[in-house]
Design a protein that fits this description.
The protein is of the alpha+beta class. About 30% of the residues lie in helices and about 10% in strands. Strand 2 (about 80) and strand 3 form a beta hairpin.
């Protein structure tokens, strides 16, 4: 029996942010980073709309100055999809979400 739970991060991601809502650091641990990226995708980007790269950069800059790293992690992690020409980004439905595309209105 191991005490390792992969389902939930050991600490809430709120720890990663300072009082002013800025990210203190991008976590190195993959599980922590995944939790953070999921949070950023959910809070900064709406599903079903395209974002130009400057808009993505602006949104990420509100939490951390290393927006290129965050943007890359979001794309590589499958949280944001990027068009082939790199001009537009779109928030992706997470594989774990039930039924895929769910309308925002309940």
């Amino acid at each position: 029996m191991t005490s390792h739970h992969s389902a939930a991060p050991s600490r809430p991601i709120a720890d990663l942010f300072s009082a002013d809502g800025r990210l203190k650091a991008i976590p190195r641990k993959p599980a922590r980073r995944e939790a953070l990226l999921a949070h950023l995708a959910a809070t900064l980007f709406e599903t079903g709309r395209d974002y130009r790269e400057p808009e993505v950069n602006q949104a990420l800059l509100t939490v951390h100055e290393d927006f290129p790293a965050l943007r890359r992690y979001l794309v590589v992690g499958g949280f944001l999809a990027r068009t082939k020409d790199g001009a537009a980004y779109r928030r992706r439905q997470q594989p774990g979400s039930p039924g895929g595309a769910i309308p925002a209105v309940a």
